[in-house]
Design a protein that fits this description.
504 residues, alpha+beta, Rossmann fold, D-amino Acid Aminotransferase, Chain A, domain 1, 11-stranded antiparallel beta sheet, 19 strands, disordered C terminus
């Protein structure tokens, strides 16, 4: 590990170098991007996602940087990416066809598929670190891109001698569930009633009792671990009565015997709560309530941009798990989501946060004048990052920062529906070529002439787990949804009926 006494000085130098590169358009376009897409999270959280190692392919859209002839990309994974997946991705990026990428694209791997964060594997592999360094022609014009940012990613950036283009690990707590609620209140953005900084089962009981005391009609509450992601650390508590508060003893018994944390038992959940802390807040659920999210990019200069808004597609128990998204967010609240996200983003920028992040909200389609409610901050690239960048790469249109809409090169709007975790067990053993052939034969695959259709991604878990991802692009939300639904049906039919034409 890096000596703490040197961290601040090195960090200042690295931030200055990153700002210098990204503030110069020519250097920014021709820089070398080192991509280490590690899910550096608690091992127990990682185990909740079978095939999570293949999430390392979610940043393959970054290969679009290679359309600039002088740009370089170094992409590191736990194990080698299937050549067919790499070829499919490169073929989908306009302008890369026929380019000689021999000296500009370096695909490196650890040859290690153990269930550990990728960054940890790289740090323990001096030979691989040296290979990455050798692929950098100019260390002053290179930077590291990661999925999320912890002390491990900072250590790796220091070992490579390049800046980390992500939130400083020392600032990560600003984005956890407790600090997020505090920040929402300080900026005047609405957030659900609740309590934060809870570190024990006793604290949970007291918070739940107080929440019910304040609102006797409350039926449910949500418990969230501070540092969970994709809803994997959320658990829903149901009160026994809508007329009177439950006693602390009853709440305690119900927590132990009725609450089912996803992928965990109650004792394990409490252990994590003790370490990382958590929150309790009212569970809001009414007709017309949706969960939109905004993606932001905070430049090292402090400028805040809304990259996109979308409506989250949620699943799992009590709709607490992120499954996918649809772009753009509903027009009835889209601009209010953007405004609230910018307010929060500017506050984060004032604290020194940089890089990609997203902010989740609740909004009411039946009450367009109601304020949006902020739920949480995610200081990382998330499940909606890749879909937007894929459409931005293949359509190469323009996102309107005011309306939040996206316009294709033909001047018409574009929308999409996406998921990176579609699971069809009968697809186990299916190859990438077979899945692509199924969408092409059905007339659903993306057509560069119409700039509509389906793109496949997150394909690494296909053969082993029967999991895949897709982005369905249309000229309207309905057309995008039709492409999405038809692709799901086609793939399901092929899986069940073995109709996929086997590649020779």
């Amino acid at each position: 590990m890096i000596d703490n006494s040197t961290v601040d000085g090195v960090a200042d130098i690295m931030k200055a170098r990153l700002k210098a590169v990204l503030s110069d358009p020519e250097r920014a376009h021709t820089a070398t991007t080192v991509i280490v897409p590690s899910l550096t999270v608690h091992p127990d959280e990682l185990r909740k996602f079978p095939g999570a190692i293949h999430f390392e392919q979610r940043l393959l859209f970054e290969l679009s940087r290679l359309t600039v002839p002088e740009a370089r990309v170094v992409y590191v994974t736990s194990r080698q990416i299937d050549p067919d997946i790499l070829a499919y991705t490169l073929d989908a990026i306009p302008g890369l066809s026929g380019m000689d990428l021999t000296d500009r694209l370096h695909m490196l791997d650890c040859d290690d598929d153990t269930p550990r964060p990728l960054t940890e594997k790289v740090l323990q592999n001096p030979e691989l670190i040296e290979r990455i360094r050798q692929a950098l022609p100019d260390h002053d014009a290179a930077y590291l891109v990661t999925y999320n940012s912890t002390s491990a990613e900072r250590d790796l950036a220091h070992r490579l001698g390049i800046p980390l283009y992500s939130c400083d690990p020392d600032l990560q707590k600003i984005g956890n569930k407790s600090r997020g609620r505090q920040l929402f209140r300080s900026t005047g953005v609405a957030t659900p009633s609740g309590f934060e900084d809870l570190h024990s089962e006793e604290a949970l009981v007291s918070a739940l009792a107080a929440l019910k005391q304040a609102d006797p009609g409350l039926r449910r509450a949500v418990i969230k671990l501070n540092e969970s992601f994709a809803g994997a650390g959320n658990a829903v508590f149901t009160f026994s009565s809508s007329e009177a508060p439950d006693s602390p003893d009853l709440i305690s018994r119900k927590l132990r015997h009725e609450v089912q944390p996803p992928g965990d038992d109650w004792s394990g959940f409490v252990q994590k709560l003790t370490v990382m802390g958590g929150i309790v807040e009212e569970y809001l659920s009414t007709e017309g309530l949706q969960s939109p999210s905004a993606q932001l990019l905070i430049h090292p200069t402090g400028t805040v941009h809304v990259i996109s808004t979308h409506d989250q597609i949620l699943g799992g128990a009590d709709d607490q798990t992120f499954v996918g998204c649809s772009f753009p967010a509903h027009e009835s609240y889209r601009q209010r989501v953007q405004e609230a996200a910018l307010t929060i983003g500017r506050e984060l920028a004032d604290h020194g946060v940089i890089g990609h992040l997203s902010i989740d909200f609740l909004a009411d389609t039946l009450n367009p004048d109601a304020a949006v409610t902020a739920l949480e901050i995610n200081l990382r690239r998330g499940g909606a990052t890749a879909p937007f960048h894929f459409i931005n790469t293949v359509v190469a249109g323009v996102h309107d920062d005011v309306s939040g809409a996206y316009q294709g090169r033909d001047g018409l709007p574009r929308a999409y529906v996406a998921s990176d975790r579609i699971h069809v067990p009968d697809l186990v053993g299916t190859t990438v070529k077979e899945l692509v052939s199924a969408t092409i034969n059905a007339g659903l695959h993306y057509d560069p002439d119409t700039q509509t259709g389906t793109l496949l991604f997150a394909l690494g878990a296909l053969a082993e787990f029967g999991k895949y991802g897709l982005v369905a692009i249309g000229r309207s939300p309905q057309e995008a949804r039709d492409f999405y639904d038809r692709t799901l049906a086609t793939v399901q039919e092929c899986a069940l009926g073995n109709l996929v034409v086997r590649s020779s």
